[in-house]
Amino acid sequence: MALALICGQGRLPRILADAQDQRPLVCVLAGFEPDGLAADLIFHLETLGSVLADLKARGITQVCLCGAMRRPPIDPARLDAATAPLVPRLQQALTSGDDGALRIVIQLFEEAGFEIVAAHRLVPDLLPGPGVLTLKTYAPQTTNDARLGERTVAAMGARDVGQACVVRANTVIAREDAAGTDAMLARLARDRASGSGDFFTSPISSASDMFGGLLGDASDWLSGSTTATEGGILFKAPKPAQDRRADLPAIGFSTPDAVAAAGLDGIVVEANGVLVLDRAKTVARCDELGLFLWVREKGL
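The chain above was modelled as a monomer; its predicted structure follows.
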């Protein structure tokens, strides 16, 4: 096996590289350098065709897409001859949702003869099975909040618009957008710190939830209290038809602090569907902050 990591930002690429017996080839999309991992190859999207040829020449047979990436615009001045034929599909990827874009990128690598390997295949411990991992467990109300979170994320995912939401007192108070989970939690934390009350007072959230009916049963997000400012859960799960070889949702060591700052009680993730990075440290930090981490079976 000759493995290459096609890397974006965050801890995941370093975790994967450190777990391998033989160091993989580390290929980094320019501008999205991973944490603590030096690149063997830095490339631009406009040279992807040449990168594919280079990987073949190096004897690479397997590729793992890992880390967070945004969508860089295509600069015609950077295009090389090997990439020019791929431009229509790259443009399609850049204008698709996250899952649609990844499917196109995966197809390009597979057509070039590479096997796509999921991160959790390289490090199985990244995907925990069901159970409560922390000292603290969840309250009975959390079961209902988690069910609402599952329905909400499934509806969002069906439209390729996110993998996380925040539920408080049987009310969806925030949904992940293109800015990601950290940004969603940071907005909640700012509202809480400023004393502005529930997230429904945020202009960003209010504008989003005007269209909440498009993302699920309107009765779900309109029901319940809209005045509570403490408690609730961060819920994360994969999209319903997601290709699980790439872009599985993840939490890590920084997530508990963000959850606590937002005034939430804990984290609920789908069993065998959400990566838990630095598991021991993440669980320990939850324990320090008095949070629970429930790895929940889908449909429970």
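Residues 198-227 have pLDDT under 50 and may be disordered.
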